Amino acid sequence: MPISCRTGCGRNAVLKRPKTGDALCKECFYWAFEAEIHYTITKGELFNRGDSVAIAASGGKDSTVLAHVLKTLNQRHDYGLNLMLLSIDEGITGYRDDSLETVKQNRDDYEMPLKILSYKDLYGWTMDEIVAQIGRKNNCTFCGVFRRQALDRGAALLNVKCIATGHNADDIAETVLMNVLRGDIARLKRCTAISTGSEGTIPRVKPLKYTYEKEIVMYAHYKKLVYFSTECVFAPNAYRGHARALLKDMEKIRPSCIMDIIYSGETMAVKEEVTLPTQGICVRCKFVSSQEVCKACVLLEGLNKGLPRLGVGKSSKAKKMLAEYNAKQEQEKGSLEQAIIDLDDSSNLIDDINQSNKVTKAKSCRSGSCKSNNKVSNGSTVNNDKCSSKECCTGKCKSNQGNDIDQGNSKINSLLEEYGINDAQKDIPNGNGHGSNVSKSNGEIVENSDEDGEVLFNDQDEENSCAGACGKMGSLQIGF
Amino acid sequence: MFNCKKCDNPGNIILRKKDLYCTECFKTNINHKFRACIGKNKILAKNENVLICLSGGQCSTVLLDLIKNGISLDNHKKLWITPVFFHLMGMRKESDDELIANALIKQCNHYDFNLYIGHISEYLLKNNNVQEINTLPQENNTLINKFNDLLSSMSVSSRNDFLSKVHRDMYVHFAKLLQCKYIFSGETLGTLASNLLTNLTIGRGSQVQYDVGFCDNRNEVRILRPMKDISQEEIDQYIQINQLSPASCISNNQENCLQTIIKNFVTDLQENYQATISTVCKTADKIGVGMKQCKKCKVCESDIGENSNKLSALEATNYSSSVSVGQQQLTSDSENFAHAMFPYINQSLCYTCSKMFSEMDDSNDVNLKQILLNK
Ligand SMILES: [Zn+2]
Ligand SMILES: [Zn+2]
Ligand SMILES: [Zn+2]
Ligand SMILES: [Zn+2]
Q1: Pick among A36, A177, A254, A350 to test the B interface (most B CBs inside 10 A)
Q2: Crossing angle, helix A410-419 and helix A213-222, to 10 degrees?
Q3: Contact status of A40 with chain B (Cβ, < 8 Å)
Q4: DSSP alpha helix (H) spans, A138-267
Q5: For residues A288 and A203, is the Cβ–Cβ distance under 8 A?
Q6: Rounded distance between C-alpha atoms, residue A56 and residue A69, angstroms
Q7: What is the mean pLDDT of residues B335-357?
C-alpha cells in the first residue's frame, strides 16, 4: 500500500524525513529541504544583496549540496548574489586530484566560477616542498595550521564579502559535545554561531546549520548530484571520535537531539567572571589569531629563513616567538594536559569508537598519496609522541583507518533502507559516475563514506584537521 | 613506593589508578571535599535547617555518613546544620519501593536520625500534610494511577527528564513544609557530568548552572550539591572502608533512552578517562545563565527567555515541522507559525518543558496539564 505524501500533494511518498519523520514525495522533500535553507539564510541574514560569496568547495557532499542549493535559491528568490567556488589545494602529489576534479564538475554543473588556490599561491610553499624541508615528522603541523587559514587568505584574494561553508547540523552538534568533553569553553560558546568573524575579517556563514547530514546525503542521492567521496578519512581526534559516537547513538533514539543540542549551545552563556581568550588578528598577516603573531606566520618565517624547525634554529627571534607560543599553549592547556595524554596514549580509544560503530573491516586505500604514506610508516621514522604520522594530514589516506562511518554505498543504501519508502530500491546508485559516486580513471569506484573530502573545511576550525592525533593543537583559538 | 601520598604511612587505597592513600588520609580528603564545598560558598547560617534528600543509593549513604560525622564533631570543624532527612517514594516498582523506604528508615534510625517520606504522585495534588516521621505515606491509588498515566504517555527520555523536574519540585515543596531554606542533594562528579551532557542533549543548555552547579537558586529554597567533587571511585571506597550498606542496591534499569546512553558513556569515561570527567564538570562551572531575568518556566522554574525574532534551533524546528506537512508554501517572512511543536513556549514553559508537554497525553484526565500550568 503506497503511503501518500504528508503534504497532501497527491503523490506517493518515497521517503521518511530523518529530521521530522514525515513521509514525503521527492518533490516535496526537495521543496522542504530547500525552503529550510532559504529560511535559514533569510532569517539569519546571512547575505546582503550584491554580495560576492565564496563557497568553500571540497567536492564532498556538503559543499556540493551547498553549491547546488545556493545556486537554486539565488535564482528562485533573486538574492542577487555573485557566487563562486573556492577550493584549496595543499599541493600533495596525488591527494587532491580526484576531489578537485569533482569541484571542477561542480563548476560546470552550476556554472559558477571556480578558484583553486594552492598552498603555493597562499604561502609560497607546497606541502611537498614543506615535506622536503621538514621531513614527515612534523609536516602535519604545517598542513593543519595552513589549512585553517587557507580559506581566509583565499577569500581575501578573491575579494569576497563572505565565505559559505558546508557545516551541517550534525557537525555542529558534534562540535558542541566535543568542546564540552575537552573543556574548551571559548569554542563551546562560538561553535553554534551561524556566522563567525571578528572585526576586519571575512565572515564565514553556515547555511546548512540546521540541515541534517542524512538529508544532505539523501538530497544528493535523489538529485543525482556528483560529489566526491573517499574511503580515506581523517581519524577523528579522540574527543571528536567520542562525541561523534555518542551523537550517533543518541540520534537513533531521538532524532531531534541534534537540534536540541544546537539550541542548548545557542542559549547557553559563559559566566561573566570567566575570561575567554580574545580572538584578535595576527599583526603580520591580519588574519584571525589568538596570538599576536599567528602560528602560520611563525611557521612561514621558519620555512622562509631556512629554519623549518624554528626552535632548533639559531634565530633568536624565532626562538622567542616559539617560546611565547609554547607558553601560551601550556597555559591554555592547563589541566587538560592529562586528559589529552590519557586520550592520545590510549590505543584502545579508536578501537572502542570503531567497535561501537560496528566498523566491519578496514579497507585498503587506493589513492596515490596513501602509498607514499605507507612507505613512510614502514620506514619507521614515525614519531609517535606528537602525531602518529600515519594519521597525519598528509597521510589522510590512511589505509587502515576504518573510521566510524559505514563504508561505501552501504551508507546511502542503509539510509534508504531506513528512510526510503516503496520504490526506494530503484534508486540505489550503481556507481557509474552518477548518483553519489565518482568513477576513478582506472574504473574503480571510489567508495564513499560520508566524511569524504569535506574534512578540508569542516575541520579547518578544529584542532588542526590533522587527524587530530596531535592533541597538541587542540587549544588554538581559531575559527569556530 | 607503597606509601600514602600524603603522610608516608603505608597506603591501601588507590585512586585514579595511580594515587595511593592510607585510610585516614582518604577519609580526611573526602571529608575535606564535602566541607570545602559547603564552606567556600558560605551561605548557610548557624544551625540552619537543611533538608537532606536521600535516595537510599550509594551516594545518599555516603552523604548520610558524612553529615553524621560532621555534626558529631566537637571541635572547630563541627558542621553547624540541623539536618532534616527526607526520602521520596514512587520511583520504582511498589515492592522495591517499600523495601528501600523501610531500609532507609532503619539506616537513619541507626544514626539516631528521623526520616520523613513523601510520595512523588503528590506532585499532582500538593497538600500540606506531612507524614509522621519514620512511616510510609498512605497510598492514594487514584492519584498514583493518574500520575503513571501521565508518565506513560511520554517517551522514556522525556519521562526521565520530567521526573527529575518533579523530584526537584517535590524536594522544594517538602523543604518548605519542613521549614528548611536549604536542601542538600547527593549528586557526585559522575552524576553531574551525566546531567550536564543530558541537559545539553535535550535543549537545557542554558539551565546547566542550576542543574549541575553547586547551588540551584531558581527557588527561594536553595538546592546545594556538597558532594559535587567526589567521584564514583571515592564513593565506592568510602562505602567499603566504612562498611556501609546502602538501603538500595537495585541498579537502575537500562531503559532505551538518552539518559542511559549518556550514563553508559560517562561510566566508560570514568573507567578509562577519569580526567575527562573532571574537565566536563569544570566546563559546567563556567557556563552561566544565558537569559536575562524574565518569566520562569512553570515546570522547571528556569528563565524562559523572551520571544525573540532571532533565528535559533527553535524557529528552525518550527519551520521544519510546518514545511514538512505542506503548510507555509510561502516565503521566509512568514513569522507566525502556530507553535504546535512548542505549546506555551515563552509564556509558561521553557523550550524543553514545552517539548515535553507536547508529548504528554492527558486525554484521560484533561486537567493534568492545567494543574501543572496553574501551579
Ligand atoms: Zn508531495
Ligand atoms: Zn599571521
Ligand atoms: Zn596517609
Ligand atoms: Zn522548563
Answers
A1: A254
A2: 100
A3: yes
A4: 139-158, 169-181, 185-190, 213-222, 238-253, 257-267
A5: no
A6: 14
A7: 77
Residues B67 and B197 in one domain: yes
Q: Which domains does chain A have, with CATH numbers?
A: 15-272 (3.40.50.620), 371-479 (no CATH)
User: What is the signed CA dihedral for B350, B351, B356, B362, rounded to 10 degrees?
Assistant: 60
pLDDT > 70 in chain A, percent:
61
Q: Which three cell numbers stand for residue B221?
A: 529554597
Work out the number of other CB atoms within 10 angstroms of the CB of residue A124.
11
B177 within 8 A of B158, measured Cβ to Cβ? no
Contact call for residues A388 and A382 (beta carbons, < 8 A):
yes
Identify whether the C-beta of residue A150 lies closer than 8 Å to the C-beta of residue A478. Answer: no
Tell me, yes or no, whether B244 and B129 share the same domain. yes
Mean pLDDT of B24-49: 85
| Whether residues B232 and B322 fall in one domain | no
Grid coordinates given for B233: 571511585
Of B285, B304, B322, the residue that ends a domain is: B285
Measured between alpha carbons, how far is A333 from A341 in angstroms, rounded to an integer?
11
Digit-coded pLDDT (tens) for B58-72: 999 999 999 999 998
Taking CA–CA distances from B275, the nearest residue in chain A reads A339
pLDDT average, residue stretch A184-192: 87
**∠ at Cα B127 (B121, B129), nearest 5°?**
105
* E strand or H helix that includes residue B19: strand B19-21
pTM: 0.81
DSSP letter for each residue of A119-171: HHHHHS--HHHHHHHH-SSSHHHHHHHHHHHHHHHHHHHHT-SEEE----HHH
End-to-end CA distance of chain A: 47
Residue B96 binned pLDDT confidence (cut-offs 50, 70, 90): confident
Domain range spanning residue B136?
36-285
Mutate which of A15, A22, A266, A344 to disrupt the B interface (most B C-beta within 10 Å)?
A266
Chain B nearest C-alpha distance from A329 (Å): 17
**Contacting residues of B for A25, CB less than 8 Å apart:** none
User: Within this chain, do residues B363 and B229 fall inside the same structural domain, yes or no?
Assistant: no
Rounded to the nearest integer, the mean pLDDT of chain A is 70
Domain identity same for B83 and B149: yes
Contacts of B127 (CB under 8 A, 6+ apart): none
DSSP string across B302-370: -B------S--HHHHHHHHHHHTTT---S-TT------SSSTTBTTTB-HHHHHHHHH---TT-THHHH
Cα–Cα distance, B19 to B14 (Å, whole number): 5
Per-residue confidence (pLDDT) for residue A209, from 0 to 100 = 96
Assess contact for B36 and B228: CB atoms under 8 A: no
Domain count, chain B: 2
Residue B22 lies in a domain: no
Residue type at position A195: S
Record the cell numbers describing residue B184, joined without a space. Answer: 542538600
Task: From B337, B305, B335, select the one nearest B321 (Cα to Cα).
Answer: B337
Q: Are residues B139 and B226 located together in one domain of the fold?
A: yes
**Cβ burial, residue A3 (10 Å; 0-12/13-18/19+):** middle
